[in-house]
Amino acid sequence: MTGSLLSRLILRRSSQQPNRFIFQRGISQSAAERTKDTLPAEPPVLPAFDHAPSPYSGPSGNDIIAKRREYLSPSIFHAYKSPLNVVEGKRQYLFDENGRRYLDAFGGIATVCCGHCHPDVVAAIVEQTKKLQHSTVLYLNHAVTDFAEALASKLPGNLKVAFFTNSGTEANELAMLIARLYTGCNDIISIRNSYHGNASGTMGATAQSIWKFNVVQTGVHHAVNPDPYRGIFGSDGEKYARDVQDIINFGTFGNVAAFMSESIQGVGGIVELAPGYLSAAYESVKKAGGLCIADEVQAGFARTGSHFWGFEAHGVQPDIVTMAKGIGNGIPLGAVVTTPEIAKALTHRNYFNTFGGNPVCTAAGLAVLKVIEKEKLQENAFVVGSHLKERLNALKDKYEIIGDVRGKGFMLGVELVTDRELKTPAKEETLHVMEQLKDLGVLVGKGGYYGNVFRITPPLCFSKEDADFLVDAMDYTLSRI
């Protein structure tokens, strides 16, 4: 599969209106009347930004596509019919080969935390690279211990012992291993619609068929997803949590190794967990002797705004926390943080990671923590993210195709449906809107099992003007299809 996944999907057209999708604007007559005179007449304009990209003289996008087809795995796909050749980034913006600027509302899949090429993070990387690019954790170097200490200060309770990895998948794999070693049990419970990685163990914990291959995946049970929008119990978290207890009672020998959950499902379509769910699920798992693993790969590092970690909003105390993505602002870095007692489980045999704790990566991680605090990015994620969600909800009142707006801070989702009552996924329309937004200068992600959810996870330096431009661009696009 060497071509674009998106370009091979055929857009459904109306025979009477060949250039327009079939759905109605406005959820009622009164809503239609309210919005009749507020349809945007002109496309919005990107906010001013004081940066000119360097002239680009590298290979063209077409040349890169040709080489990708010849030299890279055919499993790699690209977004958009005409793939974007990104050559430079600055703060919340990206620039293509022609110097055109785009508002990055995806943040490298919730990875760019401080902003593209943040000078403080770049300086830390360059300075450390000049001194020592790599040795091994078999020798001493203060970069890794300095970062571990700073990271521990951001976590509650006795979560203070870190083991560094290269990615979120590696972090989750290690967390599952630690839980099994510590408890002496094998069974792990995760939630349907979750995504925890694509290695052997984490693929088992991931609960979407589109991310799973037909290989042996054992020892994982998937609980009913506590999805307030599509779930069978609405927002009643305790009812969903009964399934966790049922799995323990009927699917295991009565004890489990761990329960693993995201605080907001990222790849699954920015799905918030029903209130009360995590605390009830944690209680059942702890009674069964299991550990609770908080997957903070996407929701961590102040992205939700209200808290530094997503699990904090649920009032729970995990035994293990995994993290990656925002931890290094784009540097390959992940971590597992747990208590000293649980961490001893890895000492019964040798466990090693050649690049985990690399001095350059951990220097970048420490710089990220300092930038988040210095620039008050958590506060910005809360204030601007709340404004953005409010404006997106106003669009939901205006356009019937928007079935749900959800998430917190700068981890927001907009789900498109062709029928609000049936919640029929608007997959083709989502692709169309995504293309149009790119043409207007806005980059968003796409997720959810049905591929009908816009994932909005921008750098935490996103401004109110950026948020308004994003919503105005979406408004303009939806008004014309």
From TrEMBL:
CDD domains on file: OAT_like (cd00610)
Reactions performed catalytically: glyoxylate + L-alanine = glycine + pyruvate
Disordered, as annotated region: 32-60
InterPro entries: Aminotrans_3, Aminotrans_3_PPA_site, PyrdxlP-dep_Trfase, PyrdxlP-dep_Trfase_major, PyrdxlP-dep_Trfase_small
Keywords, in A-Z order: Photorespiration, Pyridoxal phosphate
Cofactor: pyridoxal 5'-phosphate
EC number: 2.6.1.44
One of the record's GO molecular function terms: pyridoxal phosphate binding
Source organism, top-level taxon: Eukaryota
Entry keyword Transcription regulation: no
Alphabetized SUPFAM superfamilies for the sequence: PLP-dependent transferases (SSF53383)
GO terms of biological process kind: photorespiration
Gene Ontology CC annotation, any one: mitochondrion
Protein family per UniProt: Belongs to the class-III pyridoxal-phosphate-dependent aminotransferase family.
Name of the protein: alanine--glyoxylate transaminase
Source organism (scientific name): Vicia faba
